[in-house]
Amino acid sequence: MKTDFLIVGQGLAGSLIAWHLIEAGKRVLVVDRDEPETSSKVSAGLVTPLAGSRFHLPEGLEDRLDYARGFYWRIEEEAKKEFFHHRRIARLFRSEDEASYWRERVASEDSRYERFHAPLRIDTPPFIAPFGGFEMRDGGWLDVAAFLEHTRTMLLERASYAIARFDAGDLEIRTGGVLWKNVEASVVIFCEGWRGAGNRFFDWVPLRPSPGDILDLEIPSLTNEQRVVNKGGWLLPLGQGRFRAGSTYLHGPVEVEPSPSGRDEVLAKISGITTLEVQMTGHRRAIRPTIRRSQVFIGRHPSLSRIAFFNGLGSKGVLNGPWHAKRLAAHLVGGEALPPECDLALQPF
Ligand SMILES: Cc1cc2nc3c(=O)[nH]c(=O)nc-3n(C[C@H](O)[C@H](O)[C@H](O)COP(=O)(O)OP(=O)(O)OC[C@H]3O[C@@H](n4cnc5c(N)ncnc54)[C@H](O)[C@@H]3O)c2cc1C
User: Fold this and answer.
1) Pocket of ligand 1, candidates 143, 288, 344: which has the most ligand atoms within 8 Å of its Cβ, to mutate?
2) Mutate which of 315, 328, 342, 344 for ligand 1 pocket (most atoms within 8 A of beta carbon)
3) How do residues 5-14 score in pLDDT, each as one tens digit?
4) Residues at CB less than 6 angstroms from ligand 1
5) Which whole number is the average pLDDT over 72-79?
6) Structural domains of the chain in order of their starting residue, each with its CATH number
7) Range 142-164 average pLDDT
8) Helix/strand/coil (H, E, C) string of the chain?
9) Residue nearest to atom 25 of ligand 1 (CA)
10) Whose CA is closest to atom 19 on ligand 1?
11) For position 294, what pLDDT does the model report?
12) Cβ atoms within 10 Å, residue 8
């Protein structure tokens, strides 16, 4: 079998690059090991433009955000399904320090902030907001599992999907392309998430997998809230009193099983958001692929030009992923230069 691009992994990264290459008229084969719990499948899919306690607005965030929303809407229109849910985020301050930091940000005359905030309206109780807060605009959440499922269906319809565990040791690099089993491709793109840490071609990339826990909750008396409520921890309403809640951000050894301490940490965050009684109905854990904070790296291997990489989506894959997929596709198909800050081959790791 011949294809233009062999893509390893159908998480968010693999799905996004597959869409972009197909839109550019290229043939792809996506190979995925079909694990039940992956970072993409477990993810809450939140897009939080002003993240963290310093409300930092990274350079270029608006471009990446606008491109991501446009991309998801494009796929939705074609699928006649909704994947991206545009939601306001009620951002409650955790302390007076955080509140005064925010006031300084807004007073700094940085006009970039104007687009992202509105006054907060919140009932206290049931919410706990002694330091106030604001409403963040232009956020929302992607139903990542539904987006992945739709992508898989699209790939299956094109005979462009296979369930297999790809072993980099089985890859033969030839002049003009690569061979894996009976598949000839001009380039292989590794989109393996945290499992990329075991890939012999990229063992020099400092992947720092970061486990995260997420809970399913029921709060029967809170059926009217449409906004995501964020106070470090967050509550994502799914309707009819059902919520997702998160999350932990762990460092150190990769433990894939959900732990009681992870559950308790998330429940403690939620008890700081609302006085209402919550019932836990589910607990999942997955491993985020983090390289340097949430900085994404893309591009060709520095010495093996037939081997490419798309990884490091970290905790902001939904926001950052589409823009990086667009840049990687333009590089691989049209030879466009990559932005130096995310070109893997230029990193002095
Ligand atoms: C608890 C939690 C909450 C999160 N919340 C958010 C959020 O709110 N917003 C946000 O933007 N991000 C969030 N994230 C992060 C987000 O999930 C990631 O940024 C993104 O999904 C990573 O996608 P990926 O494709 O790089 O990796 P993955 O999702 O890990 O996908 C990699 C895929 O490749 C497959 N694979 C790996 N190696 C091989 C191989 N050798 N052969 C075949 N298949 C292989 C895997 O099985 C998997 O399907 C969260 C993550 C966690 C854990």
Assistant:
1) 288
2) 315
3) 999 999 999 9
4) 8-14, 31-33, 35, 38-40, 42-46, 165-166, 191-195, 212, 214, 246-247, 286, 288-289, 311, 313-319
5) 97
6) 2-43+145-207+292-346 (3.50.50.60), 46-142 (no CATH), 210-288 (3.30.9.10)
7) 98
8) CEEEEEEECCCHHHHHHHHHHHHCCCCEEEEECCCCCCHHHHCCCEECCCECCCCECCCCHHHHHHHHHHHHHHHHHHHCCCCEEEEEEEEECCCHHHHHHHHHHHHCCCHHHHHHEEECCCCCCCECCCCCEEEEEEEEEECHHHHHHHHHHHHHHCCCEEECCCCHHHEEEECCEEEECCEEEEEEEECCHHHHHHCHHHCCCCCCCEEEEEEEEECCCCCCCCCEEEECEEEEEEECCEEEEECCCCCCCCCCCCCHHHHHHHHHHHHCCECCCCEEEEEEEEEECCCECCECEEEECCCCCCEEEEECCCCCHHHHHHHHHHHHHHHHHHCCCCCHHHEHHHCCC
9) 11
10) 317
11) 75
12) 25
pLDDT tens-digit profile of 91-130?
A: 999 999 999 999 999 888 778 999 999 999 999 999 999 9
Nearest CA to ligand 1 atom 26: 193
Q: How far is the CA of 289 from the centre of ligand 1 (A)?
A: 7
